[in-house]
Amino acid sequence: MKELNKGLLVAVFLLIGSYSVLLAQSEKDSIYFLSKGRLFISPTFSVNNRTAVNDDQLLRFVEDQNRLEWDIDVNVGYFIKDNFSAGAQLSYQFSKEDITYVADSNEITEKSNGQSITFSPNIRNYFGLGKLKIFNQTNINFSYGEELKRVYREDDEDKIRTKELNFGIGIQPGLAFFVSDIVAVEASLKLLGWESSIEESTINDNEDEKSKITKNDVNFSVDILTLHIGIGIYLDQIKKNK
Amino acid sequence: MMKYIYLFFVFLSVSCIPDDKFGLSTWKEIKEFEVPGQAGVSVINKDSLTIVIPVNFDYDQSSVAASKIVLSNMASSTPGVGESQDFSEGAVIYSVTAEDKSIAEWAVSLKIQQSEVQLPNSDFNLWYDAGGYPEPGDGITTSVWSTANKALALVGSFNTEPISDGNNGFYAKMTTIQAPAIVRIAAATLFTGSFTDGFPSIDDPRSNIDFGTPYTSVPNGIKVMYKYNPGESYEDADGNPLPGSDACDIYVLLEEWAETGSSTIKRRVGTAWHRSSDIISDWTDLNLTFTYGELPNSDPDYMKPADGYAPDGSKPTHITVVFSSSALGDFFTGAIGSVLEVDDFELIY
Fold it and tell me: I need a labelling partner for B216 at 20 to 30 A (CA). Which of A3, A26, A52, B72 fits?
């Protein structure tokens, strides 16, 4: 089913792209034309919360759990020529969890707090006429994240501090549907190109036994689980506004 | 663009989640404390904040440096490992500072003990719940005895257990059982030492155990009450039938330990070993005499030490006592259902 969905989405992108190229002649007259000098801003926000009480899991019995995750992204771009923008996306992710569980007859409480920030310079190519446009965004990602976790056991306590640095280049095709001349609903898929990360983890301030994991990942598969939906606001030409 | 990059790196430098986000640790316990050449196990009392270390009558107490101190996580102690102290005038105070900077003062003293020392809980009357499975002693940090139950507990099972002796006490019963996965059998064992932390190795069970506990006396032999009944089908690791029958293992090694970097050299001082397939249905006293120094060539290879022998006249620093329901259980060879029961282990002087 997942493979079918992937194929369907790619087919939709290709069809709309072909259709748009064929009808590109009189585009400049359209109020939806993305001319040089326009600006766009696309903010997105998501929140995820999980609470559980007396949840019997495979290797532990969760007595109480409260997890909150949210992230906010702002993507800003400037059209340096018709249908071509350059900009940057800034994202901030936050997570917090408080969980008490029983494993091997021992009651353990964990508290954690994490945050990360991502900075992604990007360029976008737009194709299409009228309200519906297809775009392809190419990103360079810099990301830094950290987490502090405390594990409370009956006879001691652990402190686990994790830091992660990411660098990647990705391609993100998407659709923009204009509901007015300046507001569009955008959906995009993450096509991961290359990602490199370094994760360091220190337990109880023991620098001698710090773990370090380096990962390099090259992947061009479509991941429909990373479908991003947001609102894009396309401001008119700056010169015209003046 | 440069402004964004600048802001990104400013975030990296100032955004660190503070250590005290959830409060700092207040733990300041001493979990283990050892000095070189101590004669027995350190007795740690967490309520009175005292530690008593048994030493022999000829032990030089004027300059003693701790060889091992295990503290609560993120705590520190003053003095620390390797710092000599004078114990001849009485207890020495070790100040342990928790992560939150609160301090506990532990009184550490040396106690001259009788030369004919017995191992604690060698009658196997004390057992504690280690988290769904039994372990001999009164707690993981104070007991000199351990079992391999921790590995089987991962699948909700154990094969070494206390059985009431009908006289307000217990004896230890070890049963070789069918392994829950991957390997054929799980032999039961009871030993001096500890089961290692972390996920146990399945294909190398001996690597999960740190054998031995501090001991400096010079006994003539050992005595233990035991019963043994080997299981019906004696098979190798692949389940192929073998001639003969399963055997129990009861052995005691006196060793001189020496730290060499990250490893420990264990030179043999004395050996007492009993491996037998005999059915012993009633409680029987097993008496073994130590062979000090090099074993005769006629003794089987499994008795010989991996790290060689200590020089003649050496005194032990540690003792390893092992009971196993299947002598070749390390190699998954044995009979399911073999039962070894032991009680009242005693060192004979």
Answer: B72
Beta bridge partners of B41: none
Domain of A57, CATH number, reads 2.40.160.20
Does A147 sit within 8 Å of B17, measured CB to CB?
yes
Say if the Cβ atoms of B27 and A88 lie within 8 Å: no
Is A113 within 8 Å of B19 when comparing Cβ atoms? no
Position B11 scores a pLDDT of 58
Number of domains composing chain B: 2
What is the per-residue pLDDT for A18? 53
- Whether A144 contacts chain B with CB within 8 A: yes
Distance from C-alpha of B328 to C-alpha of B337, rounded to nearest angstrom: 14
Number of A:B CB contacts under 8 A?
A: 58
- Residues B39-93 have pLDDT tens digits of 888 989 999 999 999 998 888 999 999 999 999 999 999 999 999 999 999 999 9
Q: How distant is the Cα of A239 from the closest Cα of chain B, in angstroms?
A: 22
Count of domains observed in chain A? 1
B-chain CB neighbours of A146 within 8 Å are 15-17
Please indicate, yes or no, if residue B8 is contained in any of the structural domains. no
